[in-house]
Design goal:
Helix content is 48%, strand content 10%. The protein is mainly alpha-helical. A two-stranded antiparallel ribbon has the order 1-2. Bound molecules: zinc ion (ZN).
Length: 103
């Protein structure tokens, strides 16, 4: 009887720990698209995810970090921030040439 109770308490503890971990994971993993769009500086992209090496708007090397990305004419463009992504649309073609894209 004592043994049975011990097993039960162990299983309960494990279950409690697992469910606790699980809920934490779900919270951090689930970010609604709306929040992502608003707070895009928190989204991390890798340099290998994008086709450009320089931010087309401010000409900063993207090795410093990519804050936002954009799909444009079959390319995946990285920007250091959402602000630079906005600036890109002022002159998309000119900015593309400036960035000297290597595909
Ligand atoms: Zn920039």
């Amino acid at each position: 009887m004592k043994f049975k109770i011990n097993i039960c308490s162990i299983i309960f503890t494990i279950t409690a720990l697992l469910s606790c971990n699980h809920s934490t994971k779900t919270e951090t993993q689930y970010v609604s698209p709306a929040i992502k769009a608003k707070d895009s500086t928190h989204v991390k992209f890798k340099l290998t995810d994008v086709d450009n090496k320089l931010d087309p708007s401010c000409m900063m090397p993207l090795t410093a970090g990519i804050g936002d990305t954009l799909h444009y004419k079959g390319l995946v463009l990285g920007f250091c921030s959402a602000e630079c992504k906005k600036d890109f649309f002022k002159d998309p073609e000119g900015n593309l040439k400036l960035a000297q894209l290597k595909k």
